[in-house]
Structure formats: structure tokens, C-alpha cells
Amino acid sequence: MRIPSGLSGLAGLLSLTSRQFEPDSHPYVDAETGLKFAAYNSDRGIAFRVALPTLEAGKEFDTVLQIAAPIDIGWVGFAWGGTMTYNPLAILWANGTSNPVISSRIAYGYYTPPEYEPATYTVLKTGTHINATHFQITALCKGCSKWGDEEIGFTEIEATAEETTFGFAYGNHPVDNPASIDSTFAIHDSIGHPIYNLAVATNADFATKVAAL
């Protein structure tokens, strides 16, 4: 059993040392973008990669999400808070053979997650492509490292945490309208909650590097 300690507010609940558990992620340096990622590969060969800037603790920051998936998967989801409800989601799919799509969503129950405006994704040309077997999206996210409000409180990702739980899901059936970023889609066929070591995912000169992609 692994217990995450990467999200602010959880550390006080844990009496275990941060190195007691090994993460599911591994370091990955992307040859296309030059960014360092913490990466996890799922059972269907879907790669989920996260890159972060080097920052002082407690500061909100931008992130880069890179996902590569087999072309025959209907859609892929990534949850920044480790669960599929009440945190920023990225939903991705391939639209034909030339246009991968990423949609910012948030889930409140067992129905298609609606749009989530506080988190925005900018697709980076470098690192985004489709071929005969896979599609890949590399996107800058603003609003994925901190979420919530004054009423319910805020949750933050710690940029150098060695144990942060993210979540993923995928569906085998295509989305209903691949050309629309607001498309509905069927419920997932599989989910997972991998533990990431974000300490290996920090990048010096992050903003400069991302601006060049």
C-alpha cells in the first residue's frame, strides 16, 4: 500500500517518512521538448508525463502535461488531484489523423465532466502529433497546481514532493463529437492512481524553455 504526501494539507496526517515508499513514476527527458518529466506508463501503454518549474515552496505555478496514447483508445483523462471529482481534469482524444484535442474539465459525479474554466491548456506545437499508431499532446496548463475557493479551501501541488498522487482514466469508445472540445463521452473502462516523484520533474528556466516550444 502506498500513501501519498504530495498535496498540501496531507502531511500532518502522515507519521511515515517521505522515503518509505517508492514512487510509480520514473524520470524522463523528452528529446523533442528538452523538458524533464516525471513519467508513468499505464497498462495500455499510455504515458502520463508531468514537468514543473523550479520554485520556492508554497507558490502557484504553471505545469506541462504530456500524454502519449495508442490511437485506438477513445479518450484519456488525467486528474491533478488524484481522484476523478472536484479537481482539474485534462481529457484528451484524437480527432482524425491530424488534430489531437485536450479539454479542461471538472467532475462532480458519474456524468460527463463539464468545462472547467479556471484551468486552461495551451497546446505546444513541439511534442504534439499523431501518427498511425499513437497520438501525443504536450500542453502548458495554467491553474492546475492550485484549485478550490475561500469557502471550501484550496488544494495545492508541491513542486518538489517525492510522493504525489495523480489519477488517470481511459475509455475504449470514441468520444461522441471528436471535433468539439465540449464533446460528451462514455464512462471510463479503467482508472489508476499512480504516485509521482515530482522532485525529478523540475526544470530550470521553465518559462523560457516552454515559450520556445
From TrEMBL:
Q: What Gene3D superfamilies does its record include? A: Cellobiose dehydrogenase, cytochrome domain
Sorted alphabetically, which InterPro entries does this protein's record hold?
A: Cellobiose_DH-like_cyt (IPR015920)
Which SUPFAM superfamilies does the entry mention? CBD9-like
Superkingdom of origin = Eukaryota
Domain (Cellobiose dehydrogenase-like cytochrome): give its ranges.
28-207
Protein's name in the database: Cellobiose dehydrogenase-like cytochrome domain-containing protein
